[in-house]
Amino acid sequence: MAVKLYYEDPYLSRFEAEVVSVDGNRIYLDRTAFYPGGGGQQGDTGSIGEKPVVEVGMDGGEIFHVVEESLFEQGQQLSCEIDWPRRYDLMKGHTGQHILFRSLQEQNLDLAVVKIDITSDRKSLFVNGELSWDAIRKAVAKANQVIFEDNQVAIRDIPLDSEELEEVRVKIDRLKGDTARIVSIGDFDAAACSGVHVAKTSEIGGISITRMISGRQTSDWEIQFAVGPEAIMSASILSVTALSAADLLGTSIENVEPTITNLRASSQQLSEQLRSMVAEQVDNLEPEMIGSFSVYYKIIHGADRKKLTEAASKLIRRDGATVVLCDISEGGYLLVGCNEKLSIDCRELLKIGMGILGGRGGGKRNFAMGGSPDGSKCEEAFGAVLEAMKELLTMQHACK
Ligand SMILES: [Zn+2]
Predict the structure, then answer these.
(1) Separation of 227 CA from ligand 1 center, angstroms?
(2) How many whole angstroms from 369 Cα to the centroid of ligand 1?
(3) Does domain 274-399 have CATH number 3.40.50.300?
(4) Which residue, 52, 139, 74, 144, is CA-closest to 104?
C-alpha cells in the first residue's frame, strides 16, 4: 500500500516516488501526495514524470493514478507534482464546509448532512432540515468569525470505543478500521473525516453563500458556497444586487424582506380583485347577433379560469347563445360553448383553435376548453374559432 504523503504533509506538492506496478494507464506508486478523493472532496490532478494525471482514485485499498499515454515501468523513479492551486482551493473549501455546517447546525440542531461535493467547479453542501433565511444569515456570519479567529485545525486518530467519539460528528457506519480520523477546528467543531484540510482557518480567507436550492428529491437544501477571493468576489456582487433591489423597492436594505412580503400580499389581493372583475365583464358582455343566434366573445387578460367557466356556463343558458372566450395569462386558454339546444359541436370548433395554439383540450359537445403554456398564438386561435362559429351560425340561420 502506498505511503499517504497527503496525510503526513497536506502541503506537499512535489515528491519523488517509485513505480510499484503499471496496469494499462493506471500507475501505482510506493508513496503519493495525490489525494484520491473522499469525504466529498474531489481527487487531485497534476503530473507524474511530466505526464498529466487525469484521475486519481482508490481501488481495493490501493491508490491508482491515471496517466495519459503511460510508458512507465516498474521500479522507475519519477518526479511527481500535484496541481497545487486546485488542491489548495479544495482544502479550503473542504475545511470551510466543516465550519459552515457546524454554524448552520448551531441554528438547527436537527440539521443533517446528506452529501458534500467539493470540486474545482462547485462547492456544495446538501442538508436535510429546516433553515430560515435568518438562520442562514447568522450561520454564515458565525462561520466567517470562526475563520478569522484563526483557529487551529488538528487531526488525530482515536479508537472507535473511545468515549470521546460521543462528542464528535461521526457516521459510525462509514468508519473503517479500529480508529476514527478526527478533524478538530479549535473548540468549535470536531468531526470524523478522511479529507485533506488546511492547518489554520485564516487560510480559508472567508466564506460566502452563492446559491440556495431547495426542494430537491435528494435533500431539502443544496447550499452552494465559495471560499477565499471567490467568496469576496461573489459576496461583493451579491451585496450590490441587494442594494440595487432595495433602491428599486424604495426602501433600506434592512427593510427589503418585509417590503417584498407586503408587496407580494397586496399584489395577490389585487390580482384576485382583477380576476373577479374579469368574470363580471363576461357577465355583462353584449352579444353579436346572427339572426336569432347570439355570439358572446372576448379576449381577456388575467382571468380566474374557474370564474370564467362559471360566467360562460351562465351565458349559454340563454336561448340561442354561444360563447367564444380566450384568456391570455400564464399561457393561452380557449373556451367554446353553446346553448345545449343548438346543434353545434364545440369540441370540433375547439380543435381548430388548439391546432393553432398547441397544447391540450377537451370537454362536452356544448362546452369545451383547452390551454397551452405558450400563449403567443392565442389571439390567432381565438380569431379562427370565432370565425368558424359565426360561419356555422350563419349557415344554420340560412337553413331555417
Ligand atoms: Zn473534512
Answers:
(1) 15
(2) 58
(3) no
(4) 139
The phi, psi pair for 108, rounded to 5°, reads -145, 105
Query: How far does residue 1's CA lie from ligand 1's centre (Å)?
Result: 22
DSSP string, 110-147: T-EEEEEEE-SS-EEEEEES---HHHHHHHHHHHHHHH
Encoded amino acid at 218, one letter: T
Give 94 Cα–ligand 1 centroid separation in angstroms. 6
> Torsion angle, CA of 80/86/92/94, rounded to 10 degrees?
-90
The CA 97 to ligand 1 mean position distance, Å, reads 8
Write the CATH number of the domain with boundaries 88-249.
3.30.980.10
Q: The whole model's pTM is what?
A: 0.74
**Residue-by-residue pLDDT tens, the chain, 400 positions:** 899 999 999 999 999 999 999 999 999 999 999 999 988 999 999 999 999 999 999 998 899 999 987 789 999 999 999 999 999 999 999 999 999 999 999 999 999 999 999 999 999 999 999 999 999 999 999 999 999 999 999 999 988 888 878 778 877 566 677 888 999 999 999 999 989 999 999 999 999 999 999 878 888 999 999 999 999 999 999 999 999 999 999 999 999 999 999 999 999 998 888 877 877 888 889 999 999 999 999 998 877 788 888 889 999 999 999 999 999 988 999 999 999 999 999 999 999 999 999 988 999 999 999 999 998 999 999 999 999 999 999 998 887 6
Per-residue cell: 222: 443544496
Q: Ligand 1 centre from 170 Cα, in Å? A: 11
Ligand 1 geometric centre to CA of 49 (Å): 30
CA atoms within 13 A on the CB side of 185: 31
- Ligand 1 centre and the CA of 257: distance in Å? 35
Distance 113 CA to ligand 1 centre (A): 13
Domain range 3-82, its CATH number among 3.40.50.720, 2.40.30.130, 3.10.450.50, 3.40.440.10: 2.40.30.130
Domain regions of the chain by residue span? 3-82, 88-249, 274-399
Distance 222 CA to ligand 1 centre (A): 18
